[in-house]
Design a protein that fits this description.
about 230 residues, mainly beta, five-stranded mixed sheet, 17 strands
Amino acid sequence: MKKITPLLFVIAFIIATNCNAQNLKIIGPTCLKPNTKYTYYIEKSANDNNNTIKFDSYYWSGLPYTIYPPVSTSSFNSSADFSSITFTTGVVVIPFTLQCCFGLENDNLNGGKSSVNGNGFNKNCISLKIEAATVSPLHYTAPPTCLSTNQTSFSIVYPKPRAGQIYTWYAIDSDWEINTKNNNVSTTTFSGKGIPPHKIKLSIKNNYDFEDFIYQIDTNCISKKTPTSN
């Protein structure tokens, strides 16, 4: 009887699960306004850092103290796996760099689980530079809403522009002169002869954003007298 030699077949599957940070990015706005809600997220991907196929953990860092730790739970939250975060900015926005690291090998203070403010030891990290959007300054002395026709000057006082921001004032319908002095605060003075400008404009620019703010000035000022009784 002829002996039959069994054949052994081996089928091997090679699954490429290594993450490439260059192919991923943090998705979300790069210019933030005060008191506004924003969401950032990163695409999910598989990773075999522990020789098993699992979903990544995500480690966010770089959030300024004005956002995290949150003052209340309503100002900050995240998805269950931390692949996305949502927060509300405060009254002032500070430029910062948001970073997200991912992978199960990323050891941090809470045992390698997804978290905010993780140490970010993992080599698979991506970042996004966040800037403050242009907003109208909080004036110490606001632009006037009404001027008499014989007035020859007025001044506006406001905090000095932050680094990287440029303020430019215009008298839209007048040839009045404009002079700005920067000391502890900024003072812009409009002066001239003839009817004061009906509109003035402040243009604020930085490397990422620009915006114009128009201020209306009335020249038909009617003073309201308080009635008196005889």
